[in-house]
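fyi for ur records
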Amino acid sequence: MQNSKIEKEKYIIVDWLSRLGVEFQTGFVVINSQLDEQPILYANQAFYDMTGYSETDVLGKNGSFLHGEKTDKVISEKIRKCTLSDKADTFEIVNYQKNKNPFWNEITIQPISVDGGKHRYTLMLMKNINDRKREEALIQLQQEAYTGIEKGYMLGSLLENVCRIIESFFKDGTTCTILFIDENNKFRDVAGNSMPKGFREFIDGREATPESGSCGAAYHRGESVIVENMLEDKLWEEYRDIAVEYGFKSSWSVPFLDKDGNAIGTLGIYFPSTTKPDEKDYTFMERIAPTISLTVKYSRQQEEMLKLAYTDRTTGLRNRNYFMIELASLLEENKEGLVAFLSVDEYVKVVDQYGHRAGDQLIQEIGKRFGLATSSKEALIARFSDSTLALVSLMPLDQIPEYLEELAKLLAEPITVRDMELFLSLKTGVSIITAMQQDVEELIRYADSALSKAKLRAGESICYYENEHDEYMMRNLRIANELTAALRREEIKVHLQPKVDMRTGKILSFEALARWNSPELGNIAPDVFIPAAEKNGKIRVLEQNVLKQVMEWLKNRQEHNLNLQQVAVNVSADHFFHHSFVPNLVDMTAEYNIDRRLIQLEITERIGFVDIEAARKIFKQLTKYGFTSSVDDFGTGYSSLSYLQKLPVSEIKIDRSFISKMHETDTLAIVRTIIQLAENLDMTAVAEGVETEEQKQLLLDLGCHVGQGYYFYRPMPLEDANLL
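which gave:
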């Protein structure tokens, strides 16, 4: 009876499809959505070819036979509900072929009515989208690797994600492992959480020989190795027992390489049944390997650069960069707390008598003691400057005095530095975090201002920031007010400082630097008026003024047939991302008839983190028009290797703070790393702040050939630069 009903309904549907005159180029089924079991009434040949099932397997059955371990139950339920409605929709879900191979199925649901609406059915068009999903997975892995590296994720967790993605495209029970081969030619287990623990422990630490399984062979051959039957292949002769113990029948392995093309590790895929890759499987596996290589490469470089960016190398404490970023993150919690700047009078005495190394030891010991405070175990302590520690902690405001008292008590016992036993006089400046005060820069400035007042008092002292007594705030307000008038009167002048070939002393190019001598306020330092311009929305006007003066100078030299050399101009993030930046720059060079190769844009590292995709588009435009770019103060911000790799930057400038401390072993290592990084990325490394012959010679020995600093030339007015 049931078969008779199915045949009748099948006839109605087939007749309806025939009269509709539609020829489907993809698999489809028709189900009776009026019955609870939603049986399949009809399926075309393309559906049988796609799934491997026969007509006997399918007709009269519910489509759940396509489900398996990787099938998303939530999506499956959405599909079921859609078939009961009168709405069309499209879903993507993992289904299974008859041979148990999973595949991504794109299902388009279309309700249909026939015979005057007496019969309601559902047409389900199906398409195998495995190829597209694999392409998407490769792109996803690359994006997640870059994002994860920038967020500081551990390499192991990033590679676990690679294993998870690979396993999703193969039979249930398929597992992956990623191994490194160390300097002693030993396997080192890195990722593969789905692998049995015993198998991972067995492999870890074993010698990687050409006969040690698929991975050993792939590593030594430098190419993919496919073992269809681990129980018979000679490569697994030594490890056959472990393969049998864990039920592995087939293994595929592909090596991943370093930048020089040498194998550094392997990806292994293990199957519970004898399995041979088809062409698409093989291509997918081969394309995964370079993604692993890039992930490893940039993770290792980022790890080194994060140490440079976030750690004070002389004390091991967090540094200013880390503190600023973490403070911004903590403020997002919208809780009360404090920012404190702390210093001791004795620091200067120690440095004067024993040098900066002893001063570093003093700061290190103070930081360790502060870390023992129990009133706030979540406090972040960082070295903000040579003599100042910065601290932030979230806590109710009424607990702050008790916490500060505990910090003072932690310094009650003397600290011994060399042969000096020091009783310290702690000076503390505090700014309060409230719902009304959540600005990072303001909190930092307030704490610094309060510390300045605390230092004016004898002995141990704590000062809280008070608005009405802040002389620095009043001066900043005056600077902000005068800045607008100064830009209008063109008081801010450009000085040029040459970049020099340190081997010959030849001037290679110049950097344009803004200088302000105010009739009202006197000489204002750039690190004062430039932040004021950024804060008050005047930075674009200021930088356009600098560009104008540079181009006028170049035009004048051009008209007098003088030698023309490239000039670098600093560009802020606000200016760089403004919609008029590139058009205005192009128009200015055209107006002054200046070769665009003579203008270099110096950017700060944070431009790469504002919007990397927008930055990429802008850099493409700049490169198209002939401009070049440089990264200024490299290493002092949140250094990102991903943006260096993505953006067409031709120059890295090593910050002067590193050059001045090259006599210290750790700082020298940092400088060497940056120079090597620049060389590896085919960029020019420029050392800023070179002041001595010793620094110049050391940089040359490290392979850095371009320098800038007082040793060669001080910044000079444009008219003086004309004499060079």
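The two ends are 104 Å apart (CA to CA). thats all i got for now
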